[in-house]
Please model this.
Amino acid sequence: MDDAITSTYLWTVSILALIAIIQFGVQIAGGPFLDLVALLSKEYIIPGYVHRASLDIPGLGVHLIRANGMVFLEPSMASQFFALGAIMSLRKKPLLVPLFIIAVLFTGSGTGIIALAVGVVGFALTGSSKERVLSTLAVALGFIVLMLTGLIETVFARSSEFQTNGSSASFRFIDPWDHLWRFVADAPEALVTGLGPGGVSATAEAYGQGVNYTFTPKLIVEYGIPIGLACTVVMAMLIMKSTNLPLAARLVLVAMTFALSGALGQPASAILLWCLCQAEVKKTHATAADASAVRRPLASGYLTR
Model:
């Protein structure tokens, strides 16, 4: 990945991570929750969209609002970007890792922890000895912060959400696929062409509101199985092709795109992937240009003999 893009991303997200930590710390000290999103008019926010979420910490005996970095629409999105920052900084800027880990935990979001776990697995599989040690230390730091703040009970209690209808985990991981299977059964004639742009609004209304459609289910419902699967494969290949990123970071991006968020339905996710694509395209074009420059003199010399 282009160093300028990497540095810009890491420093930008590190500032937002620091803001998230301050947000949470101010509340622990008895202050108010600082939130720029709250200043937006309600007409700019989807009805029923929960951008604030509370967090009970048994150890502190307080009722707090989960940190969102002030500019992210919700804590879950913030946690994913912080988790990606932790994984990307482990190799070149390891001093930023504790900042990102603490910020992820203060969002109180399970998706950020899942993203971190995916990255740690990536380092365990292909990382250097240094990266494996650092990732292990990062996990240990996370557990220490969880225990010291009393968040550990809250975090592990959320694992039950996968079996609970109407929970955040159900909206993100269960309901999108449940809606897709029901769509396949109810409208087989639409499997080739889909319902068209915005078609998931119809399935959400038919099968129940509150679902957060991820990349593949959304594409299949709106554009049909052929285009949906083709786009899924192309996007996955595009992400995994970014060879200047460590495998751990690429796996986190795959998880963010296909499982943890609204994917390209969220501008922040789309812009991040666009930047990665630009870096890879520039690298590919530069390599092709260098190869062409080498071939041209050889061909010219051959023709003039």
About this structure: DSSP finds twelve helices and two strands in the chain. The chain has a mean pLDDT of 77. The beta strands are 54-57, 62-65.
